[in-house]
Amino acid sequence: MTPLSPSPVVSTGNAGLDAILGGGLPAHRLYLLEGAPGSGKTTLALQFLLEGVRRGERALYITLSETYDELAVVAASHGWDIETFDVFELESAADVLGGGTEQSILHPWELELDETIQLLQREVERVKPARIVFDSLSEMRLLAQDSLRYRRQVLALKRFFGRRNATVLLVDDMTGGENGTDAHLHSLCHGVITLERLTLDFGAARRRMQVQKLRGVDFVAGYHDLAIRKGGLEIWPRLIAASHHRAFDGTPTPSGVDALDHLLGGGPLRGTCTLVTGPAGAGKTTVALQYVDAACRRGERCTIYEFDERIGTLMARARAFNLDLDKHVADGLLVIEQIDPAELPPGEFSWRVRQQVAERHAQMIVIDSLNGYLAAMPQEQHLMLQMHELLSYLSQQGVVTFLLNPQSGLLGNMSSELNLSYIADTVLLLRFFEAGGRIRKAISVLKNRSGKHEDCIRELRIDSRGLRVGDPLSEFKGVLTGTPEYVGAVSPLLENRDDGHRA
């Protein structure tokens, strides 16, 4: 027996969904597009038809629930024109039955359903479309009155469409059936795409989708974030880091400050994540900016994601510390994005980072800070797992990542609500301590998976001369407690030195 050749694939008109499906939907099949009202079904269905029109195909929108004008308003909100494809509108039972139904010995709903199906079939025969959207099945379910009769009619429609080489989307708003679902319908369709809308206690509503089944296709399973924007649905496929590996050299990335580089044996290696943790004001952002400045001076592209601080404040601070970020931005080497986490789905953030790496070839990413992102989205589930997958992706792309994590408290025993050390290759710890009547800063390396590192504690100074790192604080004990005791004879503090080991 000659094996059947696979069906050609048709694009859905949505790049994100096509990526999830491995290129698109197998042609000449029947698919179910289901979701609660407001989840984006109509928008996605319109994208599907307009893609067919763009490819020179005939397309037909069959609407049993919405009027032509209502459909036109939805399309116009995205800048689309529904006159480019055929629309068959069935507003009421009177359009089908006319008068005199009460004279029949049959129930009116029996005639109504049969006549409706015949009208739809005649319209399909007339238009001969390659793509069809049937909106919505809930109206047919009401007309059928009986689950068995409803299933038989859907099966009849499947056979009818199948003989005409059309790719069909059946739209269902999930308002019928047990608990709003129809498991029988899933078994009849070649594939099932489900859209969901979630209302959070704060911030914009979240939307997501999943492909529940698609026969013969190795699609990307699981939930994928989406948003309805002008121009259609934006769907961000779930990140799978293991499928994005590329070869790179794991060389150190120096900061331009010799003493700081010496702490890490030359600097963080490419493809590693460095967690910079410490209390507010200890210099975490400035340490990361020092590495960014050095990378841009080498001609490398960098990206900073700001969750907690305004970009203007960040730039002003950098200028005060003798870091010329404005030049790097003007040269196109540095991109700084202000992120509003209350409005940003986590899937979109991951997609933005991926675009910076894949399209702009960014070699260094700074996330400032992660706990601000998490705190603004307390109802989002599995954010740490998504962040772990994102960091794994960046690692496999050879990107140097800096993840900033503020700790609560200023002196003494400080803590963090997030245990992030396990996802980081390198951990830099910053601390305040008091000595000589001044509040000072200390820096140390807690771990460095990628190589050797110093185990000493050094003083950190950030002022108009830039970032400086002093000698080991060997004459002190208890620095990390914030209240050290001086036990030496010669002070190693920076004001007693001519320079701060700045390159």
TrEMBL record:
Keyword Phosphoprotein belongs to the record: yes
EC number: 2.7.11.1
Enzyme class: transferase
CDD domains: KaiC-like_N (cd19488)
Domain (KaiC) ranges: 8-249, 251-483
Superkingdom field: Bacteria
Name assigned to this protein: non-specific serine/threonine protein kinase
Keyword vocabulary terms for this entry: Hydrolase, Kinase, Phosphoprotein, Repeat, Transferase
Organism: Rhodanobacter caeni
InterPro entries membership: AAA+_ATPase, Circadian_clock_KaiC-rel, KaiC, KaiC-like_dom, KaiC_dom, P-loop_NTPase
